[in-house]
Amino acid sequence: MLGGNAPADEDLKALVGFHPQREDWRRPFLVHLMGPGVGDENTFEAEHADEAEVETVLGFRPTHAVNVSACCNGGIDHVATALLTAAVMDVIGGVAKAELPDGQASVVAGLPGLSGIVDDDWMALGTAEFLRAWVEQPGFRLLK
Q1: Neighbouring C-beta atoms of residue 65, cutoff 10 Å
Q2: 54 burial class (0-12, 13-18, 19+ CB within 10 angstroms)?
Q3: pLDDT truncated to tens, each residue of the chain (144 aa)?
Q4: Is the whole model's pTM more than 0.90, yes or no?
């Protein structure tokens, strides 16, 4: 945690909408950086080589990526991953690139903070506000 001060239980609940501390601590998250000067530049280039549609929607070519993923697959893990990603975005900025489950494009189409839907309705691009709004939708689920 940044700053070294442990937040009160109420603060944690207010931040993410539920109390993220639980008895089962075997639910880790992976957060890693990629791009020029950070991590494996070749992997970043390979993973983002065919994203002309993303560039068109955003109006620029992304140079770095921060990947946030959960190592569990429960509903709470999906929510926590989206909210952790939104919190990271609050600090560093950027655009979330989230894979959409089948049929979710119409669900997210009108959400605040959505920049666009690309890749034949399989990927949403949006702000931290978008991620927080999507989490509130029935049937919310992230893909791996």
Answers
A1: 17
A2: buried
A3: 333 444 455 654 555 555 555 545 566 777 877 777 877 777 777 777 777 788 888 887 877 788 888 877 778 888 888 999 999 889 888 899 888 888 889 999 999 999 999 988 988 999 999 999 999 998 888 865
A4: no
The torsion angles phi and psi of 127, rounded to 5 degrees, stand at -90, 180
Q: How far is the C-alpha of 130 from the C-alpha of 123, rounded, in Å?
A: 13
The span from the CA of 141 to the CA of 15, in Å, is 20
What distance in Å separates the CA atoms of residue 117 and residue 104, rounded to the nearest whole number? 10
Residue found under tokens 């992997």: 43
